[in-house]
Specification:
about 75% helix, single chain, about 90 residues, 4 helices, DUF7990
Length: about 90
């Protein structure tokens, strides 16, 4: 009986770890997408969209170094955004 309870405990612990990893992966993906949206909103002048006033952009520019790097990396690795997004949802 004790072995059965230990096996059951390990089984549920494995499910817990798996679900936590899946949730963490989705949250990391959402963070990356929010960073992209933020970079697009603040650096939209490069994509032809209306952008915030120059004063606002200049005030937040020192904090934008990471976003510019993220945007540059994403544009270098850009292949198929739709496929990349769906890959996080385990759709076959």
């Amino acid at each position: 009986m004790k072995n059965f309870l230990e096996a059951l405990k390990r089984f549920f612990k494995g499910i817990d770890i798996s679900m936590r990893e899946s949730a963490t992966s989705l949250i990391e993906h959402e963070l990356a997408e929010l960073e992209n949206a933020f970079a697009l909103l603040t650096m939209s002048m490069f994509s032809g969209l209306p952008f915030p006033s120059t004063g606002i952009v200049l005030r937040i520019l020192p904090y934008m170094e990471r976003e510019v790097r993220v945007m540059s990396k994403r544009s270098a690795d850009l292949e198929d955004i739709f496929a990349q997004t769906l890959s996080h949802f385990d759709i076959d």
